[in-house]
Structures are given as structure tokens and as C-alpha cells.
């Protein structure tokens, strides 16, 4: 079972806050917009409405770094079982249709093993199928602090 962790980006502060059981931050749900509470030893010192909330996927990249929604991943891709894994893949992690996926061009692929790469199948005409894979993926940024990475 994966650990439940969140992070949120507060645009007005230009800062990412990681909310874990051991952090100085808590999230309050129940309102239309979640609220981030910042704690100190004397109690809550600030509360901020959160619009950019991202959940931990339960996966890590090839360097062992936790992957969250909104992260931008990079790797190489190509046909499975070939030496042609040379095309660059840069994609954002999103939650779609009940699972975490990489949102890449017009495709969405389930993100289930970023540390060893991902594999997928596409069907074509006359029952033809193609099998693709990626190299292990790494986090190169996120959609809030480095959106320009998705424009490459």
C-alpha cells in the first residue's frame, strides 16, 4: 500500500509545500478549496487556501525521488526490444480515469514503474500491434515551477 502524501504549490508565495505526517503542515479538507495550515510549536501560524494540490503517486523515478501529480518526467522511448530507444519523451504526470498517467501529446499511458521505465501497446489496422517502452524516467521539473519544459 502506498503512503498518502500531498504537496501544494502556493502561487502567491512561489513555493511548494510538502505535506507529510512529519511535516509542519497539515491540510484541511471539507470546504470547496482545501486549506494548508502552517504550524509551529505554539500552534497554527498561518492558513492558506490551496488551489494546486498534488498527490504522491506511490512511485519513484530512476534516482529514487518521489513522483507527484504535476511532475514533469523525461526519458527516451521507442519500439520494445530494439536498440532504437532514442526519441525523447517529456511528459507531465496527471490523475486520469482512476490512475496516474503520463500525459504525452495526445496519448496517456499508465504510470506504474517509472524507476524501470514503462511499456505500452498500440493497435493499428488489420490487427497489427506495436509495443513501445521507455528508459527509466526521471523528474526534471513540475508544471508550476518549470512549465516551459513541456514546450520543447
Overall residue-averaged pLDDT value = 78
Q: Could you please say which CATH topology of the largest domain applies here?
A: SH3 type barrels
Distance between the termini: 35 Å
* Portion in strands: over 45%
- Report the principal-axis shape: elongated
Number of helices: 0
Task: Summarize the amount of helix as a percent range.
Answer: under 10%
Q: What's the CATH first level of the largest domain?
A: Mainly Beta
What would CATH call the homologous superfamily of the largest domain?
Answer: YopX-like domains
Coarse structural class: mainly beta
Biggest sheet layout = 7 strands, antiparallel
Label this structure with key terms.
152 residues, mainly beta, SH3 type barrels, 7-stranded antiparallel β-sheet, 4-stranded antiparallel β-sheet, 14 strands
Describe the structure in your own words.
The protein has 152 residues and is mainly beta. The protein folds into two domains: 6-49, no CATH class; 58-151, YopX-like domains (SH3 type barrels). The chain is 0% helix and 55% strand. It is built from no helices and 14 strands. It has strands at 6-10, 15-19, 25-28, 35-40, 43-49, 53-60, 66-68, 71-79, 87-96, 99-104, 107-110, 119-123, 129-134, 138-142. Strands 8, 9, 10, 11, 12, 13 and 14 form a seven-stranded antiparallel β-sheet that branches. Strand 6 (53-60) and strand 7 form a beta hairpin. The protein is elongated and about 65 Å long. 18% of the residues are buried. The model has no long low-confidence stretch (mean pLDDT 78).
Amino acid at each position: 500500500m502506498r503512503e498518502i502524501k500531498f504537496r501544494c504549490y502556493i502561487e502567491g508565495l512561489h513555493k511548494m509545500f510538502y505535506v507529510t505526517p512529519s511535516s509542519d503542515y497539515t491540510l484541511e479538507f471539507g470546504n470547496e478549496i482545501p486549506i494548508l495550515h502552517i504550524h509551529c510549536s505554539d500552534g497554527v501560524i498561518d492558513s492558506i487556501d490551496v488551489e494546486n494540490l498534488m498527490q504522491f503517486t506511490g512511485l519513484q523515478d530512476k534516482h529514487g525521488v518521489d513522483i507527484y501529480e504535476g511532475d514533469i518526467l523525461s526519458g527516451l522511448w521507442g519500439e520494445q526490444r530494439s536498440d532504437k530507444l532514442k526519441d525523447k519523451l517529456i511528459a507531465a504526470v496527471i490523475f486520469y480515469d482512476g490512475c496516474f498517467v503520463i500525459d504525452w501529446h495526445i496519448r496517456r499511458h499508465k504510470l506504474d514503474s517509472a524507476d524501470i521505465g514503462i511499456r505500452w501497446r498500440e493497435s493499428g489496422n488489420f490487427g497489427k500491434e506495436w509495443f513501445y517502452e521507455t528508459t527509466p524516467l526521471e523528474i526534471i521539473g513540475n508544471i508550476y515551477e518549470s512549465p516551459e519544459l513541456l514546450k520543447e
